[in-house]
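Ops channel
N.P.: pipeline sanity check, posting one input/output pair.
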């Protein structure tokens, strides 16, 4: 079954993000590699006007901190664009997600930091499986 644009996860409806994800599938991912695709929501890092770019006004709670977290937990930042991170196994991706700091998760009254999806490359010809990945950031 093929997904039509409105059935795609929000993160993959953006043309630029979709191009990066397609590049990852064709050039970076091996069969069965998972990748997380992120569409950042900058409002989630600007909830304290006096400290823009930092969630909850905390200088340690930034987009870059999340990017660093994924890289430190085995993610390869495709094209260094902080949008698609390829992992070598589902366990690596799962561990990275499980160890995300609590501040990254959904907070009542504060916009979420992103929309996300997971892609699995399931065949050597490039067939993929895509799913929404709300659980990672919105639980």
């Amino acid at each position: 079954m093929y997904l039509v644009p409105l059935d795609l996860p929000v993160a993959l409806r953006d043309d630029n993000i979709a191009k990066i994800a397609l590049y990852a599938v064709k050039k970076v991912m091996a069969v069965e590699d998972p990748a997380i695709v992120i569409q950042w929501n900058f409002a989630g890092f600007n909830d304290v006007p006096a400290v823009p770019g930092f969630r909850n006004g905390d200088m340690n709670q930034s987009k870059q901190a999340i990017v660093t977290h994924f890289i430190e937990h085995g993610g390869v930042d495709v094209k260094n664009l902080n949008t698609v991170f390829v992992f070598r196994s589902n366990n690596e991706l799962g561990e990275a997600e499980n160890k995300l700091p609590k501040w990254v998760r959904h907070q009542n009254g504060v916009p979420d930091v992103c929309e996300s999806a997971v892609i699995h490359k399931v065949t050597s010809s490039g067939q993929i499986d895509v799913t929404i990945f709300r659980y990672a950031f919105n639980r």
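N.P.: looks fine end to end. Residues 5-138 form one domain.
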